Amino acid sequence: MSGHAGAVSQLVDRLSQLPGIGRKSAERLAFHLLRVREDEALALADAIRRVRTDVRYCADCYNLSEKELCQICADPKRDRTRLCVVEQPRDLLSLEASGAYKGLYHVLLGRIAPLDGVTPDQLTIDSLVDRVRTGNFSEIIMATNPTVEGDGTSLYLSNQLGEFPVEITRLARGITAGSVLEYANREIIADALTGRQKL
Ligand SMILES: [Zn+2]
Known about the structure:
By secondary structure, this protein is α/β, with parallel strands linked by helices. Helices cover 44% and strands 14% of the residues. The strands form two sheets. It has a five-stranded mixed β-sheet with strand order 4-3-5-6-7. The longest helix has 17 residues, at 38-54. It is elongated. The N and C termini lie far apart (55 Å).
């Protein structure tokens, strides 16, 4: 596709850098945006701008938030004796959608993956250890994904947290190995939470 006006080819370039969007899809999206009403197209641009300027990580749990503390950490009704450790904010959303958990969370922002160059110091582990040290938690639930790296991460964390008087559990293996929290349905996640086991 040569010969587009500069602005169009710039948009196609940008879109094709998004994950899962090839050149053809990028062109389709670009032409779609030229065809829809102007306010509709600009609303997308606004949404992108807002998500980057207004959204940050919660100061306590690293969930996505528009305030210093996310809605969960700020909610006085949450059970502050339980802490559930997840890899990504989207895993937290899956657990929340199950409605089966009322405690707090800690988002690692990744998992330990030596082969991809992800080491423990790149995750929010120091802050997790601090929270467990200073908080009143009786149970830490490892809800990393049931993959080799997810399991390795939860093992590493349970060693780091071993010195504290907390029970460390992990989700039951209802979620089949290799599948990830993000794609599991609510019933499976609720079962995995109810059937959690001591690590
Ligand atoms: Zn939070």
